[in-house]
Predict the 3D structure of the following.
Amino acid sequence: MNDTTKQRTALWLVLLAAAGTFALTMGVRQTMGLFLSPLNTSTGLGVASISLAFAFGQLWWGLTQPFAGAMADRIGAGRVLLAGAMLVAIGTFITPFMTTTWGLVLAIGILAAGGAGMAGPAVLMSATMRMIDPARRGLATGIVNAGGSFGQFALAPVAAALIVSTGWATAMQVMAVLVLLCLPAAWVLRGNSVHAAPAGQKPVGTGEAVRGALRHQGFLLLAAGFFVCGFHVAFLATHLPGVVAACGLSEQWGGWALAMLGLFNIVGSIGIGWAVGRWRMKSLLSLIYAARGIGVLLFLLAPKTGPVVLVFAAFMGLTFLSTVPPTAGLVAKFFGTANMATLFGMVMLTHQVGGFLGAWLGGKVFQATGSYDWVWYIDIVLAAAAALVHLPIREERPRGVARAATA
């Protein structure tokens, strides 16, 4: 086997490990909505109480990522991924035994969601970038990002079939065991920030890197844009079936709309990963956010038929999480890969804060007005603001912030 073949094999092994881990952890996490009704029937707690556990999990998933990233930069990505996968499996496995609201918050909101955060984009993207040649990082992060959508697309039917054939409790525990299939990836993705530093040099400490990032205008603008992404994504993921129902269409159209959203997200993630190596990342981000706003505006003006809903869902899928590769790429370009997990985790936290508001505000507005129109108006304004806020970003690596100190 020549050197070129070895390099290609190593590249695909890293991508398989990272994308496979994201597919399993995100796929299992995204199927939990299928268990909401059975949980309600079994526990009698009420949908509102059970939803609290799911909502807390959304926020906790984001809160864990900066800390998981800091741990990965310090002790190695492999150990953090191992712990994260185990927590997802444990939290999911014990959920059927929980009969109180706080028990569900512990199992779903803390253990499973926290574990998914530890094995989430911050750690996976940084580990991938550390191990792959810079020229291939854009496409690589697109493939890893697509792994999460593929997991949702593939595991949701599996979970639904298991619920019908074995019952919801057994189905949930089978899903917990499936997560353990990603454990070998922890060995493939092992290593920490020391391995990302050039020979004879050591990386900037975590505290210094964080302080430098918080003083960097481009990083703050990037985080602001990702906040808007979280708002948009969480609103769609949570309320798209409700939007379809409000249009007077059957539940079948809502299910197909979600499927189109996930399927075209795979296409969008890989496509934008390819584009990252060819165009300026800040320009791609501005284009994505502008496209979202235009897509929502056209949907509001269009007749609300089933085919229109599917076309809208497919278009939104193309832009759904396609912001992740260029956002991760800019963080790496600003500061290098030594503290990538920590810094990208901070950006992911702003994403989830926006996501919490998008999911919560969608329900509040619909309850108050009987329509989602005002949320769409807010989404259009935010998309326009995000498109503009990326334009002043300077893509060159700032001096002093990401420097390596001589050992």
